[in-house]
Every structure is written in structure tokens, then in C-alpha cells.
Please model this.
Amino acid sequence: MDLGLDGKTVVVTAASKGIGLAIVRAFADEGANVVAGARTIASLEGIPRVSALALDLTVPGAPARLIAHAIERHGRLDVLVNNLGGVRLRLGGFLSLGDEEFEWAMRVNFFAALRAMRAAVAQMLAQARGAIVNIASVNAFF
Model:
């Protein structure tokens, strides 16, 4: 199938396993240049059309570094796929959760995506086009 992605630049977060790795492979198979960000990148090595950058996307400056890397390498950004997310099993209910648990969840599930989108939108506005896909699922955990 030709989805018209040949030569497009795609950034995928949390790209080294599971859903993220499948997304990376699908875009690369369609001819896109994929910049994949993850803490570990060994599983991404050797995939044609994929360049990987090892980084912790929960660190405030990391999502912008990933977007900048894609733009430096390919001169543009056409698609951002925010795949990073996580869950910790909590059996004690809402009242048992402290601030540190909520802060962790916000860093992983909200702020990483927000920071990547901020960096991506600036480039996409300059290009007058682009697409952002946000994935929210804990199914990989279960």
C-alpha cells in the first residue's frame, strides 16, 4: 500500500519496543525517514530509514532535542507520534496515592508529549503542514 509517505520525516517517541517499534517499522516500510527516540535503542539499529536517538523523554529538554535532531538530519518534520506512556499498578485506590505518584504519571503521560508537541508545532507552522498523533494506552503493560 502506498500511503504517500515516501521521503516524509516522522518522529516516534518510546520507539524501541511494542507499539512504538511497530509504528517505526510501519512508517519505514512506507518509505518515511523515521527518527526514533527511546531510552534504549539496540532494537532499532539496522532498520533501514531509521535513525535512533537514546534519551529519557521525561527529562524536560529531551523531547525538544529529539525534534531538533530530526530537523537537523532531514530538514523537516511531517509527523510526530507521541507513544510514550506508562502506568504503575496501584491497588490501594485514589486516596492512597501521594503527590510523587501523580507527578510521575504527569511526567510520563502528559509533559513528555506536551514538550514534544511544542517543539514539533513550531516547525510544522513554519512548513504550513504536519500531523501529530497521540497514543494513550496501558494495554502493553497488561
About this structure: Residues 9-134 form a domain with the Rossmann fold fold (CATH 3.40.50.720). The chain has three helices and five strands.
